[in-house]
Amino acid sequence: MSPTQPISTDLTAALGADDATSPQCFTIYVPNKDRDGQPIADHRAWVEEAIGLMCEINGGATAMPPVDGAWKNEQGIVIRESPVVVYSYIAAESFVASLPRIREFLHRMGRRTNQGEVAVEYDGRFYHIRSYDAEGGTT
Hints:
Number of helices: 4
CATH class: Alpha Beta
Largest sheet: 5 strands, antiparallel
Number of domains: 1
Structural class: alpha+beta
Order of helices and strands: HEHEEEEHHEE
CATH architecture: 2-Layer Sandwich
Strand content: 15-25%
CATH topology: Alpha-Beta Plaits
Shape: globular
Distance between the termini: 56 Å
Oligomer: single chain
Strand order of the largest sheet: 2-5-1-6-7
């Protein structure tokens, strides 16, 4: 079998799994530094809120330990940080119905943690949120 050839084994049976699905994944990058490179004091609270929100909406969420990253802020300064990656396989109906709650969280996090950008990933696409809704609703 070549490395690019699909496995012809029934993995569901081989692993003793109940079923196999092909869910779509929604990922939130929770930053630990602001747009000026300053640490976010309540970083863990944002991670916990992201996990809780995704768990409530989709039935589960996983947070990857801090990863090493870098990006350039508006002044061209490279900011090194260790964001936590929170991902959740979506439950389509509740996910779509909860998009206003997800938006509120992302915009609030961007505003309150002084972000130049909040990043999320969904279905192979990367979304950049750079303008945040005013406190209490959309602008």
